Fold this protein.
Amino acid sequence: MHIQEKEIRRVVKDEKEYRYGRFMDVREVLERMTISYDESNGCYRMNARMSIQDEKYIISMKISQDGQIIQSHCNCSLKGQCRHIASILFFLKKLTITSYPYFYEKDDQWNKQQQLAKIERQRQERILHKKQQESLELIHLYKDQLLRESSAPFLSQQYQLKVFVQSKKDHLWVAFKILTPHQSYIIKNIESFLKAIDQHIHIQYSKNFGFIHSLEAFDEDSREIIAFMNKCYLKNQYLQQGIIKTLMLSDELDEFYNMMNVLPSSYCDIAFDKKISDSFRNLFKRRKLYLRFS
Ligand SMILES: [Zn+2]
């Protein structure tokens, strides 16, 4: 229909209502509309019903042949100067009518498709949202992984541990050394050594020797010694005070023998006090522990 924008503006003066009407999706809300040609008055008569969020609006208009709005009425509180009028006028502006009376009814099929499309859009949004969540979680996971890996040392070589067994006050005690091809370094603080392995901390043993600790920094046999060390240290925490440099063996004796039996002899060194050496020597022999005695 021939309707000019300035005519819509003239009828719906309120800027907000005008804009609302302009951008309203009329097909969503217009339930039915009839336009008939009134021959005796030479104008069009339009009646329509809209449904917006369970509110019904009854709109009627009288439009001249050249597109002048002669009368407009809506049952909403704005009485014909409203978004409903504006929206229908914008709709009519685009509508091509070939014969009168013209009858429009909301297409249920079209409406259903709209509903389906809306549901599909929401579904897609939910999927997208879920994917975003998953991606975020993956990124966090990956970050954690990177952090862990970057804190693990780059290993150019693995070190070996050596256990030193001594007898003291009728007990067996063990101390530990780290071996390098040229030197050996005594572990002076077992607690900080174990903590360094757990948390990948750098320990400096001498001016020229230090490294970031981790299980991977030690060869496989030495890792067994570290596992034993961990276990034994927990108990020694209650048996000793101050910085722990050697571990006292008590209940762990059997486990210690078993471990030493399977490890190569270079992993253990046994020093005995002359006076009590025989009894320990016999004990070791009885348990068939084949070690090089120093
Ligand atoms: Zn209205």
